[in-house]
């Protein structure tokens, strides 16, 4: 099963929902029996890799993009594409083993400095976007740093408050960041001289 959420200016948008559904249903973060979940989110059943790729393309086409001084089609939001895998295996003793897993593919908007985020006509909109992007990335960095410190110090630091709730991005990824998960970060950097801060 697939789902895809966009976080734009700290508001959630379901990229699999139709235009009508997006106007009528607001996606909200809730605490469920299995942890964090989103009420009003559309989930699609997939049966092949091609189904997954088709849905990813559809979601990508719906994302909010905008022109900045650095990039003509800059993504203005974070996107979380979730693939939930449910498998059944028949054991030798006749019992049925159920296996569940989740894969979150997260596309983060890049951090920006104020002077590179936009021109005069769209300055206010770009400034709000830039501020929200940078705030959620800063919170993500703080969460990761505090989790690392907690692991290094063991039980001594178990009472430290991890700021998951300071951003919708970290709230949605709470179980993935602080649970028994593997996390891989891929950074894409521009080699262009004009992209360098002097």
SSE layout:
Layout: E1 2-8, E2 11-14, H1 19-24, E3 28-32, E4 35-39, H2 49-62, E5 65-66, E6 74-75, E7 78-90, E8 96-107, H3 123-153, H4 168-172, H5 174-178
Antiparallel strand pairs: 1-2, 1-7, 3-4, 5-6, 7-8
Cα-atom radius of gyration:
19 Å
* Low-confidence spans: none
Distance linking N and C termini = 46 Å
> Could you tell me the number of beta strands?
8
Helix content: 25-40%
User: What's the total helix number?
Assistant: 5
CATH class: Alpha Beta
Instruction: Using the 3D structure, state the CATH architecture.
Output: 3-Layer(aba) Sandwich
Give a short account of the largest sheet. Answer: 4 strands, antiparallel
Domain unit count? 1
Structure description:
This protein has five helices and eight strands; from the N terminus they run E-E-H-E-E-H-E-E-E-E-H-H-H. The chain has 198 residues and is of the alpha+beta class. The chain has a single domain (2-186), classed as 3-Layer(aba) Sandwich (Kinesin). The strands form three sheets. The chain has a four-stranded antiparallel β-sheet with strand order 2-1-7-8. A two-stranded antiparallel ribbon has the order 3-4. A hairpin with a 2-residue loop joins strand 3 and strand 4. It is globular.
Name the descriptors.
two-stranded antiparallel sheet, 5 helices, globular, 198 residues, 31% helix, 25% strand, single chain
In short:
By secondary structure, this protein is an alpha+beta fold.
